[in-house]
Amino acid sequence: MAGDALRAxxxxxxxxxxxxxxxxxxxxxxxxxxxLLLYPASLxxxxxxxxxxxxxxxAAASPCPSCRAAGFCSPSCAAASHPRLLCAALSGGGGGGVxxxxxxxxxxxxxxLFLLSAYSLPExxxxxxxxxxxxxxxxxxxxxxxxxxxxxxxxxxxxxxxxGFSPDLTAALLSxxxxxxxxxxxxxxxxxxxxxxxxxxxxxxxxxxxxxxDCLPNACHFDYADRPGPRNTDIVVRALHDITEGxxxxxxYFAVNWQYKDRHQRLLEDYGFQxxxxxxxxxxxxxxxxDSDGGDGDDTMEEEEEDxxxxxxxxxxxxxxxxxxxxxxxxxxxxxxxFVRYLCNHGECYGMLAPLPPLPNGEPxxxxxxxxxxxxKNEDEIDAPDxxxxxxxxxxxxxxxxxxxxx
Length: 407
Fold this sequence. Notes:
Beta-clip-like, 15 strands, SET_dom
């Protein structure tokens, strides 16, 4: 049913976006998509993850026979290989090699890995990549397209460079990267604080890239990179709650517990726009943001959650949160229910809790899954006055076993 859930539209002041093409039920999988482009987040990640599918590697990994720097988790991934220009740069085919590539890439390793991978795409996929949107107002950046272009040319044999290779084409590619890439994160570990979690890879999904940002989203995305079987790098987008036909479907581009000033700084720096969603309009009036001492937002979030009453029944609660009216004054935070219901408090991971897909009979699952730590939580625990403790029986089942069955 995911294929008929969304339709693309031009939205005033927001560019292209995705709207609900029909009424969507909470927990529905509304988009599943394979990556157009997949590339490592850093050279340091190469020994830890398969260079074809980015699963965690075991000690029995097979090295790439060409560059010997990349590794593969299976014969099928070894046959699929990894981006040819990246492999050439790692093997020293253009005078590079891992050491020279690392030296050339600093301090711009990530965009260089992107360019080497993008230039490796077959022509039809390369054209699709170039057709993706760029920020209307390019975000400020210290990337120098001319320098990065020269690095690519120095690291790769000239005969491997694609037709049309030029500084202008490199600049055009770089404009697509930051605003369209999704992070595929390293496995969650409770001892690693949220700001220190790293990406194992980046992926670009043409349709998912149309999903705009909202600081109180109505959908969230999952990646299941370590699950067995094919298509483990697909993006999976699920609805947090019921979405009426014609309403825009939005994600949050970062953890929803961030404070107003931090959200706006990130959106301006990385995406080149200023958010004017309902939450931002309310929080922009808060004097406490101006007086903030630079904390990470945890105290503010705890206060918001304690002030919320939890609510009963998803539809009425969300209508009140998302409407223009409501009984809360401009000085109050009108969305406490959202954080109580959809923000994971397990190990301070601050992921999003999305309902599992509806049951075969169409009834809601009443079980929520975190898109960061993978823990499961029953709805009655979420609606409990104190937010509830995690259900040991459900968690004991193992989130991965449920994930694979659901999808």
